Amino acid sequence: MTQLAFQLSNYQNDFLIAASSIDDIEVVSIDENPDAIVTDDADIQSNGKPVLLYGSSPIEKSPLIVPALPKRFSPEVIALRESLDSGNLGKLGLLRMHLWNQKKSDGVQEMVHAIDLALWFFGVDPEHIHGTASIKNDVKCLLIHLGFKSGGMALLDFTNSMPTGDNYESLCLIGSNGAAYADDHRNRNLFFNGGSPDAKCPDTSMNFIGPMLKDFTQKIKPEGDLESNSTNYNEAFKIFSKAGEKYYFK
């Protein structure tokens, strides 16, 4: 049994609900000497305990800070990864991802996590990194092209030009034997309440929490690998900094 304490300024209740459904996790307070802490506060005093840092950039390199990589644990990504690992898709040749948000979105963490996702699917660092960006009246667009030694490539498309309402996200994998696709447009349910039907996405936005917490509990075990997330996050952030400099740092 792993004792986890939670201290989040956002989504605290979602994390508590997810943790309470996992048999191997016991939710305790920080004062009860937990095995580890889950937080979005990069400045938290962990008293030597491992920390899963969600939604914030690590302020300094620490072997006890585990940056969260939530996109790896969304239901659609898990399904696509299983298809790739089972050999159904063959050798991965192309990863294509759209992330379209609204102006109020900061987007940096989401973009870093998307780059991490591409590196995770290909399993190697890219040989070639290209990026182009445009900014006009606070509307930003960034295209990133990653080329891998295997001949594969990842194309990532970010923008914050969406009007108020739903964001849009899609992920496509094309391999030598097949393809897999996850898309907000296709993943919708029709509701008939009179008049024109409504097509709405099922609310799975926080379904990554449970699998992510299970993965974290494995990492904090004596034989676990606490540093891999930091290594992966830092590599993804380095690529974002190079390819997306004009997008965010201008």
Question: Would you spell out the secondary-structure blueprint of this structure?
Answer:
Elements: E1 2-7, H1 12-20, E2 25-28, E3 36-39, E4 51-53, E5 65-67, H2 75-85, E6 92-102, H3 108-122, E7 128-136, E8 139-147, E9 153-162, E10 168-175, E11 179-183, E12 189-191, E13 198-200, H4 209-219, H5 228-243, H6 245-248
Parallel strand pairs: 1-2, 1-3, 3-4, 4-5, 6-9
Antiparallel strand pairs: 6-10, 7-8, 8-9, 10-11, 12-13
Task: Summarize this structure briefly.
The chain is α/β, with parallel strands linked by helices. It is built from six helices and 13 strands.
Structure description:
This protein is α/β, with parallel strands linked by helices and 250 residues long. It has 2 domains: 2-69 and 208-225, Response regulator (Rossmann fold), CATH 3.40.50.2300; 72-206 and 240-248, Dihydrodipicolinate Reductase, domain 2, CATH 3.30.360.10. It is built from 6 helices and 13 strands. α3 (108-122) crosses α5. It is globular. The termini are far apart.
